[in-house]
Amino acid sequence: MEFRHLRYFLVLAEELHFGRAARRLSISQPPLSLNIQQLEASVGARLFTRSSKQVVLTAAGLAFVPSARALLDQAAQAASHARDVGQGMAGSLSIGFAGTLLYSGLPRILARFQAEHPLLRVMLKELSSSEQLVELAHDRLDLGFAHTTRVPPELSQILVASQAFVCCLPAVHALAGERLLSLKRLQGEPFAVVSRAVSPDYHERILTICSDAGFYPEIRYELRHWLSVVSLVSQGMGVALVPAALQQSALAGAAFVPLDTVTTPYETHCLWKTAHDHAALTAFVGAVQSASGRAA
Question: Under a CB-based contact definition with an 8 Å cutoff, are residues 62 and 72 in contact?
């Protein structure tokens, strides 16, 4: 049984006349008759009764009409879906991200991308930068948004965001109302940081910034997520240096004060395997480039 047979059958079932059906199909009557005979042989039942005056569907033919129509519809849907996947218009993308991206551009990128590619399913996984590098290496992520300068050579990257560090203090802290803050004034305060195991680049960056200010921070709390750092500070348990975007978290009890000196910025990179060039990934990279205003 071929899809051609089903198509011919349905046209003849509507016309109940070989001449009219053949004209609709842009073929002559003999090929139409042959195809109907082949279909009946494949089905194992007569689908039409024929006489010199009329063509009538048999009981088997009547029963076969909805099934034949459903088969053709399914075939058309399957072909359409395959085309969409091939063109990057359907399928799925697995994307890793570090928590700060929720406050520095990722929601906007996703909203625009999903509006332009509604058949693509985007799955987000919150992972540390080091975890994303592992997942990308093992092809368990299509793309990641990470904070690291340690990018393997097999990955392409786009600089998505660059932001300053700010001091995060309890709102009741004596320095919370300062317009600018000298980091040296936090010497001896209990610091909260994202742990070295989760984000070695950030951890080292905090130590360097404090060292440049003339002291070594008293790290009292090592946490897995940025929001945990801000939440802990908001409870009055310590202080922290955090990316400026986290000011948007608006957690009650936390205050953010800019530093009075320029520090090395906190950068976010979009990463993906250079060798991977399937259409959905290419489309998403294009959306990131457009949003960041940078080329790969």
Answer: no
